[in-house]
Design a protein that fits this description.
- This protein is of the alpha/beta class.
- It has one domain: 3-Layer(aba) Sandwich (Rossmann fold), CATH 3.40.50.
- Strands 5-2-6-7-8 form a 5-stranded mixed sheet, with helices on one face. Strands 1-4-3 form a 3-stranded mixed sheet, with helices on one face.
- It holds the Pfam family ABC_trans_aux.
- This is ABC-type transport auxiliary lipoprotein component domain-containing protein.
């Protein structure tokens, strides 16, 4: 009897495990990098340029494989079913590089030998990356641009808040739009510097 009781317990335990696995929600992966071939969202005012984009830093609170969203004034939730396809810093960097290439005909030459063309170095530090489903996507960033041929870097800050609809797709799209607007500001400064022109931080 003891043997049969142990066997029944093992079968019941296995059934619970299989049931839990079967009811687990599927994972969804998201990217901030826009699809290739999209139309430019700004009209560049300077010539195309080359850039080196340093690794992007993001706040430790959101530097997780899972999407982290705000709940109320103090709470946050780590969403086990919604995840970034790559580390969040890499996602922001990839999105920014893609937006610069699309909107300014710029070329990312990070890690490549310098070919004598005008090149600028871009540094981006995302200080806040807030996600509120059905409400807004917010980015607060400090960034700098420096011409590699010499000159002082220009350090600026930017803040963007995008209203978003319901659902996580809309939330990710809001962050994509915020990064696209950020790329517009950085690209305008980078293009001017690469062309040897004076540049200033964007107003506001």
């Amino acid at each position: 009897m003891k043997r049969w009781g142990t066997l029944n317990l093992a079968v019941a335990t296995l059934a619970l495990v299989l049931s839990a696995c079967g009811s687990a929600p599927p994972l969804r992966y998201y990217t901030l990098v826009p699809p290739a071939g999209g139309a430019a969202t700004v009209t560049p005012t300077a010539s195309s340029f080359q850039f080196e984009l340093l690794p992007v830093t993001v706040p430790a609170q959101v530097d997780q494989p899972q999407m982290v969203v705000r709940e109320g004034g103090q709470g946050v939730a780590v969403l086990q079913g919604q995840r970034w396809i790559a580390p969040l810093g890499d996602e922001v960097r990839g999105a920014l590089a893609a937006d610069l290439a699309r909107d300014f005909r710029a070329q990312d030459v990070t890690g490549l030998p310098n070919q004598g063309k005008a090149t600028v170095r871009i540094k981006l530090d995302v200080r806040r990356f807030d996600s509120v489903p059905g409400s807004y996507a917010y980015i607060d960033a400090a960034w700098s641009v420096r011409a590699l041929k010499g000159g002082d870097p220009l350090a600026c800050t930017s803040r963007f808040s995008e209203t978003v609809g319901a659902g996580y797709d809309a939330l990710v799209q809001g962050h994509q739009q915020a990064i696209s607007r950020l790329a517009g500001q950085i690209g305008a400064v980078a293009g001017a510097m690469a062309a040897g022109q004076s540049a200033s931080c964007p107003a506001g």
